[in-house]
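Methods — Computational structure assignment.
A single polypeptide chain was analysed. Its primary sequence is given first, followed by the predicted tertiary structure written as structure tokens.
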Amino acid sequence: MDVLAEIQAFLGCETPESWIDMAKDPVQLQLLLTDHAHCEKKAASTAMTLMFRYVDHLDLLDKMSRLAREELVHFEKVLGIMKRRKLRYGSLSASRYAGGMHTLVRRDEPDRLIDTLIVGAFIEARSCERFAKLAPYLDEELQKFYLSLLKSEGRHYQDYLHLAQSNASCSIEDRIALFRKRENELVLEEDSEFRFHSGAPAQSLLAKAS
């Protein structure tokens, strides 16, 4: 099983076609790329936060250091694409996706660390799945860029999942199943905002876009 097939099995559901239809609309390109850039920056920030919070976890420090550097390179590449296309990068409200996932994170350690890492695995996995589904509909430059991200994002998903299991004293399958249920709800339910990790666009959003 290749990484993408593994990721699809891990996620348990595919991105709704209505999200793909909206994401491939050229009118939505600036919004999509802006939020993508924000996601890469947040991913680097999350990795750095984990490094500062868990200073005695050597394997975590190694993997998160590498991840943070890669995410910042991706951030810079998205900015470069936007600059070449004369698209403006600015502030943007966050989607409900990450916040919705983090509501299930437990407060006490090591449970907090394990759950946070599981959330990271889902975010990276969903990003990878969307890159793969969206790439065929994009222009040559963006298609090449999104396909180039699959290997690193897939590795990030595996790193997060490995760290979650290695820091647990028993199987984490029940926690994964819990987060999978929540993640699927966030992805499949109608969403009033369009973002890189948003759910199926609500009818009001589709009407506005059209």
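Note: The first strand starts at residue 190 and ends at 191.
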